[in-house]
Amino acid sequence: MRCVKNGFLARLLPLIGLLSLAGLQAKTTEWVDLLPATGNAFDKGYDIATSYCGEAYVVSTIDNGARAKDIQVIRYDEYGFRTAFSPIDAGGAGDDIAKAICIDPEGTVWTAGSGIDQWGNETILTIAYDRSGAHKWTLSYDFSGANQLHEVVDIEADPFGNVYVLATAKDPAFQDWNYLLLKYATSNGGLLRQRQYDAGFHGDDFAKKLAVSHLDGEIYVAGESYSPQGNRDWRVIRLHDIALGTVWQDSYINNWLDDHVNDIAISADGTVYVCGTVGLGQGKFAYRTARYDSDLGRLNHVDYTTSDNSVATALTIDANGFVVVTGYSRSAPGSTYDILTIRYDADLSNELPFTPFNAFGSPDDFAADIAADQYGNVLVLGHSTYNAVAIKYSPQLNGITLWSPHLLSGPGTGYFEGCAAAFNRYGKVFVTGSKTDVSQSHSQVLTYLFDRDLVALPPQPVFGADLWARNTDWDDGREPYTWGGAVFASPDIWVRRFEKRANALGNHRFEHEHEDTDLQHTAGAHPSYIYVKVRNRGCMTVENATLKVYWSKASTGLDWPNHWVGFDCPHDPLVSCGDELSDCQGTIVNIALPPIAPGQEVVQEIEWCPPDPGNYPAGDARHFCLLARIISVDDPMSNEQNNVHVVNNVLENNNIIWKNIIVEPSDGRYKTAPTWQPVRVRMTNGAAGPIRLGITTEDQDHFLNYGSFTLDIGDELFNRWVSGGQVAEGSYTLDAANNFVLASPNDLLLQNIAMQPAEEFIVAVSFNVFEHLPINEERSFSFDLRQYALDPGGVDYEEVGGERFALQVIPPESALLTPTDVPEPAQPGSLQLLNLWPDPSGVGEALALSFRLNEGTKVTIAVYDTEGRLVRELTRDYFAAGEHRISWDGLDSDLVAGAAGVYYIRLQAAGQTLSRQFVRTR
Cβ(33)–Cβ(82) under 8 Å? Predict the structure, then answer.
């Protein structure tokens, strides 16, 4: 929510003196910065953005009173030191007015505003600065070429090298206002495309807010349209990134009453949320918050109102996925407005109104902006009489305020209008706006910096290079890692049997799902591929980093570097059991990483031929550990030690990750007997002592609902466990062979198992899937086997390793796909499959398909094999009414030619599913 020319203060009573807000507990700020005035005129801060490195950039309009207004950007580091960029005068004698600011992934600062000449003609100005504040370019755009009016409202950057400017522009032909979207390339500032949107009837359409999906680059615009009857309706649209082309739209028609849109946000999974108001009649409004899928299909909405009037102004999605909406509300006609903030779950359920804020006698309190940090805290910026107020909530604590409301008035006399607020990456809060003196003769740009709270996790400032990879899904790179979970199953290193390239749909995302290695690979054969994701959480670009990867036979209790560099098998010293990674020609792999900018991540592909499985004992061929180490002189290891459990180094150094995983073949449904998967349990401590073995899972939907899980620790370890008192936590039964069978979806921990130094045993787990599965789609499950040993002091237990077992369970074919040899009859407004050619037998390598739609809709077309597994998704896109054609080149999702045999092609559209069988002969 940005400031407008006539903000909240303009709606208040004339200035009659400053009201004291005694009783508000002020949160100590680190500083308050009042930018020196450029003259006896009006300077104003409009918007604020924070960079990956924690800096804040304020875009402002400055006016020295002697000439026209100019646009200026002010940079603050995380300690509040100010650097003012050179003001930009777009030329001419008119005003240049700032409106919005954003920072692209490369650190370029982009601002958008309006350039107004002395005759009142207006153009859209887009200005870019580099990190140092050097001016890169000023881009001017006039939509009609006739110097018509433009009102800039927002600017946003995507991760793919584009910046979007949203405005409302006046059409010279019909003299109505329309949405206007501009797309620029961040590399050179070139205008790539522009798109005007008119909802119809040549009524006015006013854009309010822009959101860009970081998943796929789709653009969503929220605003309002006047209907032919003269009332305002919601108008939310979605456009394709590539051409700003096809438009999905949603409109709320509310019985001839005015409805207003105020904000839009996109969650991490692509869900779109919009907030605003809906008219209730008699001048009353209610909060409305709506939820859409990524195709802008409306999922649901929720309204909130008091007995009189409620107006939602802004929303955000916090770090926990809660949707937090703020605004102002009053309980009865004639009463004062209070700031009211509401939290919802992601599906807009479990409504939790926070305590309304009333500034102790203030006539009215309004919410203007909202922001969320990475720790789950939410800041609401509002107005109370002639000053701003900041309130910080913790949704984790059900809306309890972490700060008592803090009055923002700035130094000296006068009043402060707060326009925008933002958190930086360390949880500090920046607030900007304008400080007007008591006489209202001039104003200055005023910016606050608040220190953060101690309730959330402490920050770890990073100023130089800091390359890292995740130990677990919730790892954020801080050292040492202390958040638990299976650190031997890093999500940032995985193996694929075939190289992952962009598919025919242009999808460049890597498959993060780990696969079994193809053990038929031998020297000179087709390799497997290892992928490692490396991130930069520092504030400088790293240009000279390397990646080294090591393998070891999967086991617990691995030491560094003893079991990773030149490690020979205990049963056969002539066979390698661990070493640096080699390609299929036997050459050690040393990967030079590309330059990685702050906040950037790269995925590095590495060729690998696994060792010959025939060199290892039966049942142990498919087990490997992988260890990746990111090496850079700019970012040395923090605390790497030799001759210690490798888990110690993984925890202490964010540039070391470990993957120890077995992927069970996805044919579990057809098993008639369990398949055992072994794990080496090794005691590497220098002294004898007890160990613990645990079975854990992070799955909410437990595998025991679909099969059985058994742990076999072998006769010797079983006898030692019995001798140690048979101490166990968890629910289990023992079968005839003294194997542990999980009896309930709880973790299992076996204690007091004595082991001697350097002893090694084989334990094994097995999965047995029920013959009749209560599911109709593929499910993935995982278990972790974890080993704990006494620390060197002999006081507490520490984890020394483990192994993850991943299992994909596939239901019966009939539950996945019900194919038919002929297309179903088409229904009105639905889908019709017309033909497959060259002919339904599928002779030849290419297959073409035609279909007809009676109305425009989203269509999904995919190819499946006879077991119901997805072979290739051909399209998932919007198609207009009429006939269309699409082809399959015979390649699967990995761009590998499919085998000859029977396949099914399935079409889904307009709530209907059609399928056709065909035969691929070669």
Answer: yes
Specify the DSSP element, H or E, that contains 423.
strand 415-423
For residue 57, the cross-strand partners are 49, 75
796, burial (CB in 10 Å: exposed 0-12, middle 13-18, buried 19+)? exposed
Q: Exposure of 854 by Cβ count < 10 A (0-12 exposed, 13-18 middle, 19+ buried)?
A: middle
- Going through 323-405 in order, the beta strands assigned E by DSSP cover 323-330, 338-344, 352-353, 365-372, 378-384, 387-394, 400-401
Task: Let me know: does 580 contact 530? Beta carbons within 8 Å.
Answer: no
Angle at 526 between CA 513 and CA 867, to 5 degrees: 50
**The two structure tokens encoding residue 276:** 């605003």
Burial 382-395 (b: 16+ CB within 10 A, else e): bbbbbbbbbbbbbb
Pairing of strands 656-664, 797-809: parallel
How big is the CA angle at 528 (ends 522 and 534), to the nearest 5 degrees?
140
Distance CA 390, CA 408 (A): 7
Give residues with Cβ within 8 angstroms of 121, minimum separation 6. 147, 148
- Predicted TM-score (pTM) of the model is 0.70
| Residue-averaged pLDDT of the chain | 80
Instruction: Kindly provide the b/e burial profile for residues 692-719, where b requires at least 16 CB atoms within 10 angstroms of the residue's own CB.
Output: bbbbbbeeeeebbebbebbbbbbeebbe
Residue carrying the six token digits 């006896």: 40
* Bond preceding residue 838 cis, omega within 30 of 0: yes
- DSSP 3-state assignment of 618? coil
Rounded Cα gap, residues 611 and 604, in angstroms: 21
Q: How far apart are CA 15 and CA 20, in angstroms?
A: 14
Sequence-distant (≥ 6) Cβ neighbours of residue 726 within 8 angstroms: none
Q: Which two tokens stand for residue 162?
A: 């584009």
Measured CA to CA in angstroms, residue 90 lies from 13, 93, 146 at distances of 36, 9, 18
The span from the CA of 698 to the CA of 486, in Å, is 9
Those residues with Cβ within 8 angstroms of residue 248's Cβ, 6 or more apart along the chain or in another chain: 237, 238, 295, 296, 878
Give the H/E segment covering residue 720: helix 714-723
Residues 738-761 have pLDDT tens digits of: 999 998 888 899 999 999 987 888
Q: Kindly state the helix (H) or strand (E) to which residue 646 belongs, with its residue range.
A: helix 646-652
What is the mean pLDDT of the segment spanning 6-19?
29
Give the highest mean pLDDT range of 263-277, 577-591, 821-835, 889-903: 263-277
User: Alpha carbon of 207 to those of 166, 222, 315: distances in Å?
Assistant: 7, 6, 17
As a whole number of Å, the end-to-end CA separation of the chain is: 59
Please state whether the peptide bond connecting residue 36 to the residue before it is cis, i.e. omega within 30 degrees of 0: no
Q: Specify which residues 780 forms β-bridges with.
A: 808
Q: CA angle 411-416-418, nearest 5°?
A: 125
CB 80 within 8 A of CB 30: yes
Q: Which of 30, 133, 54 is nearest to 87 (CA)?
A: 133
Question: In angstroms, rounded to a whole number, what is the distance separating the alpha carbons of residues 898 and 894?
Answer: 10
CB 92 within 8 A of CB 138: no
> Among 27-31, 122-126, 565-569, whose mean pLDDT is lowest?
27-31
Measured distance CA(640)–CA(192) in Å, rounded: 48
> Cβ contacts of residue 346 below 8 Å, gap of 6+?
267, 271, 321, 322, 323
Preceding omega of 480 cis (within 30 degrees of 0): yes
Q: Where are the beta strands (DSSP E) in 674-747?
A: 675-682, 689-696, 707-712, 728-729, 732-734, 740-742
